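re: ur question from yesterday

yeah so i grabbed the chain u mentioned. its 131 aa long if i counted rite. heres the sequnce exactly as i have it in my notes:
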Amino acid sequence: MPPAAAFPAGTVLWVALGGAIGSALRFGVSELFRRAPALAGLPWATLLVNVAGSLLIGWFLRWSATAETTPQLRAFVAIGICGGFTTFSAFAAENLAMLQAGHPLRAALHAAASVALSVGAVFVGYALARP
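ran it thru and got these structure tokens back, copy pasting raw so excuse formatting
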């Protein structure tokens, strides 16, 4: 565990607040997609939040590297909001459920799309923040 000095005062509160915001946004996206039966079959909400969260964190990391930001702001956005919003744990559980339900092709498609699009979105977000 890092020494206490590695965590500026109040940072954990900013992470918690950002996590609450990110989690609430994640819930909202899930609810919107849950109510759209035409989109059934793949966990589209999980894919969307992973890609959007990856885009946001890529952009933010690049922007915050050149802007005058505080450690608290970086923790609030990158760890709190993005960490609460993205859902790789849900991604893993949903892929397991598809495999257990006998849909290996669907699980493989979802896994490949999630990884490729999320990594690509980080790259695009990083490029968008170019000074």
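noticed a couple things. The CA atoms of residues 54 and 122 lie 5 Å apart. also The chain has one domain: 10-128.
anyway ttyl
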